[in-house]
Fold these 2 entries.
Entry 1:
Amino acid sequence: MPVEKPNPQQLTLRFKCHKTTILLLVDPHDNLTSIKAKLLEALKVTNVSEIRGQPLPTEPDDVLLGVPVDMNDPAQGWTDLEIPEVEDDIRKKGSKKSGVLNASPTGAGLKDGSILAIKFRSEASDADDLNMLDNEWDVVMPTFDDEEGSQNKETDAV
């Protein structure tokens, strides 16, 4: 992976899976599929072959992204970033219309330093499994407990 020289327009996105955080520098107008491909490439270059026992997918479409329900409090949970494509009966029958949220980080309202949860679609899972796991995001956010003065306590945000 060639070293990319940063420019002021690029965004740093934080991708989280359990306790793993990946920082990735992206162009705000890249589509999400190319960002997922960059994420997989960055993981492969650093010799990461699995996260939490789950092997990395080979296709960017097998990477699922989530955003916090409340950007100021990720402990409230996560929701899918990508909106399913819908058929547009007005223009042409059978044509697919992609949502604005699927176009780019800018279209999704992401800013520099935004947090995204990641999970992988496994080859063995079918549509029923994906529907059950839609709202399950394995993200552990570090917290600071004022009473105990410990920074090491962590909570699960699902």
Entry 2:
Amino acid sequence: MDPSKSLTDLAARPTYSDDQVIKYLDSINIAILRSSIRSKQHNLTFLELLQQRQLSTYPFENLSLHYSTTYTVSLDVNVLYDKYVNKGRGGYCMENNTFFGTVLRSLGFEVTSVGARVCGGVDGGNAESYGSWGHMVNIVTVVGKKYMVDVGFGTNGATAPVLLQDNNIQTRLGQGEMRVAYSKIAQHTDPDQRLWVYQIRHTPNGDWEPMYCFTETEFLPQDYEMMNFWTSQSRRSLFTYTIMIAKMVMEEGRLVGTLTMRDAVAKRRVGNEVLETKTCGSEKERLEVLREWFGIRLTEEEEKGIRGTVAELKG
């Protein structure tokens, strides 16, 4: 066996066929010539368009852990393709970023997948503390510059590729802004260690809030399998007892707001303003919101899967 060939095979990542890519692009309303699918000339503008169309078409959601017959999450790229493109569903961070990273590789982008630690302050905890490697982001290199691309962090996520440059401020949603800072975190015992910290603020004069930190060290598919198992199966994981959905809203070619649901409460926002709140009193009402707000239609078997679980609405 040729040693160099075996190493190349080990580094290979799956990609989608041209037909699959075209069907996906059609689902997010982007037309492209078949001959240019695997072009190495795709630019930052195209990458941003892809990211924003992905965010406004396929939601962040964890319904597979509640409305299901198996209560499991697969990171197999073909299972994900079927779930998103054929069934019109979404997924949580590792699903979204595995799927989107595979799309980007299939289009010829240079993609490296890395791990991230979510800040405790995101869900009301200690803003100086970070959790385990529980999140995934992609780093995409365009014309020699690296960008963090994340389509799996819900309403606080990046809405465009974020340049890996210390404290470079970019616009986000409405008046919001985002950046990454190259800094240490309080839990490190090595004072010289640094990570990229993704931060947001809701107004130009607001305080910066850390969302997660991430490394540039590549994570392997088997790393995500371990992360995915804990996130989807541990009773300590928020995803196993809380229903969460978030989808960006696009109008006239730009992202303007969000649709969210957490357990029984759904909200429509434009910028930071809440325009509508709906509290579901029963599973019937929640399923209606899934269909009417998010375009998610579950099978009868999936709908039955939530019965008797902690997340079921008993009304």
